[in-house]
Design goal:
Immunoglobulin-like; single chain; mainly beta
């Protein structure tokens, strides 16, 4: 057996370059007819650099297994006949030997099975002992112990393509370039199932909102049919039925609110020859609401009221070109102007920080109760008004060029917005604001495309879901378009769909995620603007085959752990991913937890049998 670099070097290779073949029980077995190149590019984006090696013509497959096998066959053939000229005879011999073994692997068509995850997940070795392609090459070279060790410690890991110590040495020893090794391994489309909601709509869905009763969803957009029946732009989903609010509402709907006295729509509505920013459905009819001295105004966004007022709305008007105003509808049925921004407001959130207004604006004028200027300040797309204090302030730090959405998750503000590659402008797509610190979470690494995060939804656990107009293209791994999860613990992205057009709105309704947008297709299947996914977020508590008992739960000062080995590493995290306490398990206990406030936490354990996550409470 030839000498190889240290385990740490090989581990770096595997975790920075490769992920294993993983055939999911949830995969779609029907692969539609299209060109060889299109199919192969879905298996591995590296085919964009090897288009000449793809056969001409069209092809279809009975399963992903057949498509993976073709990919391997073509890559092996090309690598056998195109060895780098600077390799010596030993390197070429090692290369050809491993490629022959890889051919046996491809001929057998037995790839790792994704048993424990509902979406495509990398498996270095599956529960039956099947290696991924790179794992098989290491295994047949006589390094069984190395494969077993890597499988125990990092069997499900995704890591980025980063050149670190050990990669060059391993590639040189066995006669491969780094780009060739990346080409061997496939990237997968997401396999999460998306279903159309009944017959959907015949036009885009821009907003989905859960009714305050919790029993139905309001759906608004640009459509004339809902579930195949006439309905103009706005309806609702209840008891597995889609219905219209009256006959619908003529006009552009930008936002909706559910208040005690009816459904409110905000946008641009023409009635009796006049434009109104607000329309209200009282259960039978639509009524139109204007703002004094703002005839012809249009509304971009609204939110629920607070002390002394029913709701607030951001409007544009011809008297304030390139500006928008924030107005409150007071409890005494009067209107009060609060502020004016230089730009546009896209979202408003009532949060623990106060009222958060976001969009694309660089300054704010705040009015006092006499409607005269009280404060003028410069801001960067965010302005927050504190409760009961009438104090307004911005935040500092790098943020999206335009912010489209803001959510509060685990005590932090999460901003999503428009972002372009760093060579062309601001590349921050998602950022987090906590303890007065603004931290980028997701950057646009494509220099030639503008991405946009339009909507964020959170149910529970360590992930939130985001949608918009973007591509997740890791080169290897799972790729996706326009819908993904963000893991707050690992700061990683998990694609959920391959949608042909943008996502505009997301909402969790029970355990299901409802998706509205411009799309009509996901992974080759028709989805008419309104889709549904089940069990997309939350805790994956089955990442390791282990009988673990965590008690008491809720806990006070001590957590007992039955079934975990001594010395296992642990982390207790707040729901937003911040570490509250970490260490090693001693005597099957985690002690000294009195300092933690009551609430929900995540317990993460690094076991020899795999990584484990449990939700715990105090």
């Amino acid at each position: 057996m030839k000498s190889i670099p240290s385990f740490s070097g090989i581990k770096t290779i595997l975790f920075t370059l490769f992920i294993g073949f993983s055939f999911s029980f949830y995969a779609n077995n029907h692969i539609p007819t299209k060109s060889y190149f299109d199919h192969l590019s879905e298996v591995n984006k590296e085919w964009s650099h090897h288009k000449e090696a793809a056969p001409e013509g069209l092809i279809s497959f009975n399963s992903d297994l057949d498509r993976i096998q073709l990919h391997l066959n073509l890559v092996i053939d090309h690598l056998k006949t195109n060895s780098p000229s600077n390799f010596n005879s030993d390197q070429i011999s090692n290369r050809l030997t491993l490629l022959d073994k890889l051919q046996d692997y491809a001929d057998n068509k037995v790839f790792p099975i994704n048993k424990y995850h509902s979406i495509r997940t990398p498996y270095f070795v599956d529960h039956l002992g099947t290696n991924c392609a790179v794992g098989q090459m290491i295994y047949v070279s006589g390094n069984e112990d190395l494969v077993a060790k890597i499988s125990k410690e990092h069997n499900y890991d995704y890591l980025k393509d980063t050149l670190t110590e050990g990669v060059v040495e391993w590639a040189k020893e066995f006669g491969f370039t780094l780009d060739e090794l990346k080409w061997i391994q496939p990237a997968y489309p997401p396999t999460q199932t998306m279903d159309q909601v009944l017959d959907g709509t015949n036009g885009k869905v821009n907003k989905i909102l859960r009714h305050y009763s919790g029993e139905k969803l309001t759906i608004a957009g640009e459509f004339t049919e809902l579930d195949g029946s006439p309905c103009l732009n706005i309806g609702f989903y209840e008891n597995n039925q889609l219905s219209c609010y009256g006959n619908g509402l003529d006009g552009k709907i930008n936002d909706i609110l559910h208040l005690i006295d009816g459904i409110y729509a905000f946008g641009e509505f023409t009635h009796s020859g006049e434009v109104f920013p607000i329309a209200k459905f009282d259960g039978t009819n639509w009524n139109y609401i204007g703002i004094p001295n703002r005839i012809g105004a249009t509304a971009s966004v609204a939110n629920f009221g607070g002390s002394g007022y029913n709701y607030e709305v951001a409007i544009a008007h011809s008297s304030i070109p390139n500006h928008q105003e924030i107005w409150h509808f007071m409890n005494n049925n009067t209107w009060e102007r609060q502020a004016k921004v230089n730009g546009i407001i896209n979202d408003i959130l009532a949060s623990g920080y106060g009222r958060v207004h976001v969009g694309n604006f660089d300054s704010v004028i705040v009015y006092n109760s006499n409607a005269t200027i009280d404060t003028s300040l410069s801001v960067n797309n965010v302005v927050i008004s504190k409760y009961y204090e009438d104090v307004w302030h911005g935040i500092s730090g790098e943020i999206s060029e335009t912010i489209n959405i803001v959510k509060e998750i685990g005590g932090a503000l999460i901003f999503g917005g428009t972002c372009v590659g760093s060579a062309w402008g601001n590349d921050v797509c998602i950022s987090r604001y906590f303890n007065s610190v603004l931290q980028p979470l997701y950057l646009n690494d494509h220099q030639f495309l503008q991405y946009s995060v339009n909507t964020i939804a959170y149910n529970y656990g360590d992930k939130f879901t985001f949608g918009g107009d973007f591509e997740i293209d890791p080169g290897i791994g799972t790729y996706g378009i326009n819908l993904a999860n963000f893991n707050l613990i690992s700061n990683s992205i998990e694609p959920l769909a391959d949608l042909d057009q943008p996502v505009n709105s997301l909402i969790y309704f029970g355990e299901d995620l409802y998706i509205g947008g411009d799309f009509q297709n996901n992974l080759g299947s028709p989805i008419n603007y309104l889709g549904k996914m089940s069990s997309t977020v939350g805790l994956n508590e089955n990442t390791a085959e282990i009988n673990l008992n965590v008690y008491p739960n809720p806990f006070n000062s001590i957590i007992n752990l039955e079934g975990i080995e001594e010395g296992a590493k642990y982390s207790i995290l707040y729901i937003d991913g911040r570490v509250a306490k970490s260490g090693t398990v001693m005597n099957e206990k985690i002690n000294d937890l009195d300092f933690l406030p009551k609430g929900s936490y995540l317990l993460q354990l690094e076991s020899m049998k795999g990584n484990i996550v449990r939700k715990i409470f105090k």
